[in-house]
Structure formats: structure tokens, C-alpha cells
Protein 1
Amino acid sequence: MQFQLLSSVMCWFLLRVLLLQIFTVQLTLGEQVWEAEGTSIKKAQHSTAAKALAESVLPRPAPRSPKVDINSNPGSITPTVELNGLAMKRGEPAIYRPLDPKPIPNYRANYNFRGMINQRYHYPVPKIFYVQLSVGSREFIGEGRTRQAARHNAAMKALQALRNEPIPERPPQTQEGTDASKSEISLVYEIALKRNLSVNFEVLKESGPPHMKSFLTRVTVGEFSAEGEGNSKKLSKKRAALSILQDLKKLPFIPTVEKPKTHYKKRTKTILKTGPDYGQGMNPISRLAQIQQAKKEKEPEYQLLSERGMPRRREFVMQVKVNNEVTTGTGPNKKVAKRNAAEAMLLQLGYKASTVSPNPSEVRTQPNCNFCISFLIYIQTSPPLLLCGTIYLFQCGITVSRRPSNF
């Protein structure tokens, strides 16, 4: 028991000594010496350095200048992309040309095989790539471990030189500059069209072996003609056009005449008559729609209200709405009911009844009929009543067929 107690006390004492271990560091700077203590070597060094900074009489070093970041937007835009945008604004293309690397001196050329026994191994020198960048009349050389790194290095140098320079003004584009992008044949046709001259290309001669053909082509433009020779028809045609262009450019300049502007008389809008007699011979549905269009109002709205009667004797009720006016019409089918509703709306709006003849398929004629008369009566009651029917004249007498329509 006493032995265990003694061992635990010794362990505690050793742990306490280790935790309270103190380190002393001495700093010598010139003739001055400083000492400091700490619970670790690093803390003792920091305390000694802080003490030396506070008590040293030596002059302090000048502060370092901040590092200039050439690439203003690293990571997202590479120097080559930024330079391409700047070169497009300046109107000067950026052209990269790879350069041959500088030759590396061979230090082993003067040694023989006997002298290489005791020599150490020399690691190969890393290859360096060089790129020449031309922006307008300026040239920049870039280098790097890869060809892409060399391009970026040259672009960064160009950006540093061109970023603060003013953008040069572009000269006005002349007619010769625009014609430079056109082919000789196109220019010949263009000049001939302006002067109302005919153009004719003709192959005069074809000579030489099959693998080395030679063609002679003649071009005729009005009174001028020229010839061109080449190893293909296209090339001989192009050379002939180039020859005749020299003669066509000597012709006097044609002044441009502006054509007088033709003034077109504005057509007046057709005035649609919407009087009471308008469209009496038309279908009531079409007549009502045209009247609403002439008034520039909303078109009629039709709606099927009900369907009643036996299967073979159906009767349909159709409603039409125009603005705040509403009328209905009935008939043996939806078409007749819609027409009767439109006719009732026309009468309610103050127009005369339509005189269109009924469809033969919609009128059931009676056999042995000598003469028939169709009638349509509008009774302005509340609600209004539209009475339509047919009077049949027989040899034996008169029969009246009536179809009432209530709305």
C-alpha cells in the first residue's frame, strides 16, 4: 500500500516537472545580445525576437513594394483571351509564332569514356519554349515550360504595354477596300451590269497531256476582250477577268442618278352601308355579322339554349346576343334555328326582313301542290314572336303550314 502511494507521488512530481519545463533562447545581432524564456522553444524564439525589435538601435529595412498583378482577372480570363479582345478593339490582329529553343551547351563533348567513370549523374535541363507575338508593328517574346505557358507570358507582356495606350482611329473604308474582298469575275459582272454590257466567257483552246492540261479562255465585255491561260478552266477564267479589269477601270465614271420617289395615292376605306335595306338578299347570319363589322363592334354570339321534342320531330332553340340585345330562334335543326335567331335580331335592331329564299332541304313541300307562298311575320310583343310558315294552294283548297317561334 505504501509502495503504490509512493509511486503515484513520484509520477505526479515528474509530470509536474515536465509541464513546467522552461526553455531559454539567446539572440545575437551584431554586438547586441538578447535572451528570453518560454515554455517551448518556438515561444522563446518569438519572445527574443520581439525583445530585439523593441531594443535594437540598428536601422529598420525599407518596406517592400506591393507585387504588381499583371493579370487583372486571374482564373476566369486568360491573358491570351484578354489580349484578343484588346487587339480587336485596336483593329490589330494578334499573331503567335513558335520559336526554336536556344541550343543547350553539351558539357560532355570533351570527355572520353575513361573520364566518365568517376563522374556524377547530371539531371537533364528542362525544355523551355519560346513564342513570338506580333500585335500591329510591335513584337513580344514569351517563354515558359509549355507552349501554352509561353503564349500566356507573351500575352501578359503585350497587355502591360498596350493596356494604357489610346486606341488608334480606323481609316474610312474606301471603295477599293470593299472591292478587295470580291473576286475578279464578280467585279467584271458588276461593272458590266452598271454599264448595261453583256459578258461572255469562252474556252478557246485546251492543250497538253491529261495530267498537265492548259486552258485558254477569252472574256468579252461589250467591245472589250481579253484572254487568260491556266492549268484549269477556273484559273484561266480568273486571269482573263483580271486582264479585262484593267481596261474596264479606264472607262469614264458614270454619275449615279437618284430615281424619283413614286407617290402612291392612299386608297380611301370602303364605306359599308348599314342602312335598313342593307343586305336584304343575304343570309341573315352573314348579314348580321357584316353589319357588326361595319360598325366595328363585337361579332354576334350564338348559344344553343335547349333541344326538345321527339327524336324524329326535334326542335332546337338558339340564342344570339349583340351588345345588350338578346333574341332567340327555333327550328327543326341548329342551322335553321340560328338563322331565325339572326333574322329576329335584325328585325329588333331596325333592319328590314331578309328576302332570301329558304333552302329546299329545309322546307317540306306537299305533294300535288300547284302553288306555295312562304311568309314570315314578326310580332313585337313581350316577349317578341316570329311567325313563319308556308301557304300551299291545291286544286281542292288552301292549306297553311305554320311554324311559330317564341323568344
Note: The first strand starts at residue 23 and ends at 29.
Protein 2
Amino acid sequence: MTAESCTAVVDPRYDRNSLYVAASRARGPLSLVIDVAEVDAHVRAARSQETRQNDVTAEERRALLLKLLSRESIKTSTIEPTEFAKAEVASVRDRQRRKKRELSHEL
């Protein structure tokens, strides 16, 4: 859905595709909102035990967001894999039927 303006809440689970989809929802102004506490928690979790209590810097936040938002992931589907197999079988069956009909018309 496209809107005149959009506000998207970006979290560490986002990847490149998620960010693109969120950013492409607005014709006009776009605001990206980041939960600093959640980003800080991810930064601290990646630190050594001794430095986890130190304050998180803006540079560390930016580095984490750049790393996370630049990753690629395989686009998932809401369709079950078994549905793909059923659709393929049905497609093959339909092609065979069409071919039979075409051949019967030629005779």
C-alpha cells in the first residue's frame, strides 16, 4: 500500500529487502524510526563480558545498523513448500491435457 507519507519503525530484524519495502511505501516524506534501546541491546550482546556495561556510542549504533540493513536474505513466502509441489503437479497435468487436445484436433 502506498501513502502520501510514511513512518516506519526499523528494528534489528530488518534486512535490505525489509528496509526497501518500508522505504518505498511513501510518495512523499518518509520517517525511519529506530528503537535505540533495542539497538543498544544488540550492540552490548556482541561485546565481550567486560565491556557490556559501557555506554553504546552513536558510531557503534550506526555500524550495527549498517551491518544489519545491508544483509541480504532469501525472500520467504507464505505458501507452504507442499503447495509448490501440488501446483507443479497440477501444472504438468494441465500441460499434458492441453497437448492431448491439440493433438486430437490435428487428427
Note: The mean pLDDT is 81.
